[in-house]
Amino acid sequence: MNIAVIPARGGSKRIPNKNIKDFCGKPIIAYSIETALQSDIFDRVIVSTDSIEIREVSLKFNAEVPSLRPSNISDDNSTTLDVISYEVSNLGLESNDIVCCIYPTSPLLKIDFLKEAYFRLKEGSYCFSACEFNSNPLRSFYIKNEKLCLLNENFTSYRSQDLETFYYDAGQFYFGYASSFLNKKPIFSVDSSVVILPQINVVDINTQEDWEIAEIKYKILCKQ
Length: 224
Fold this sequence. Notes:
Elements: E1 2-7, E2 22-23, E3 26-27, H1 28-38, E4 44-48, H2 52-60, H3 80-91, E5 98-102, H4 111-120, E6 126-132, E7 141-144, E8 147-150, E9 167-177, H5 178-182, E10 193-196, H6 208-223
Parallel strand pairs: 1-4, 1-5, 6-10
Antiparallel strand pairs: 2-3, 5-9, 6-9, 7-8
């Protein structure tokens, strides 16, 4: 069995009601639900939430919400693995069932990315989305006591094209076996594989500015 789980708790602080806020005409969570349903990968698409309002919106867009998530795994300290492990246990899945965690704020996610990850999962315990850094982190620095501190002075004289390419977690989805989630096996390990997403399809929405950038990207993608 293949299950999609969309973790969407209520009470977002920086963007009120973020997971159901209107995004270009419909609640942002609707995009994740519809992408999962239209992919034809999943037998069930489930929203994991502690919010009655999010539950009602999710049901309207044909996701399942079997029950409300308890408060002890719905606070700021709850991790993705905590939530998915709870849902896997609740659903009574077999160890080799496939589970995909899709974030509710992923309106730029394409079905093709999910399909590629689904087929690549056989290469490891997990397969998740990644994106190339715009600027190589080996040449990054931080500021302490008003002084510039280099991460590594050895790379300051290198041309960017001569450095290794680095990637980061795109924060769109994580495919894994039910047993991996249930046992909270680390997602970021040598056993995992990745699907590289274009920059245009990636945005981490934490602020109003992020939200506006996501809407701009969405409108650009709609014209392609």
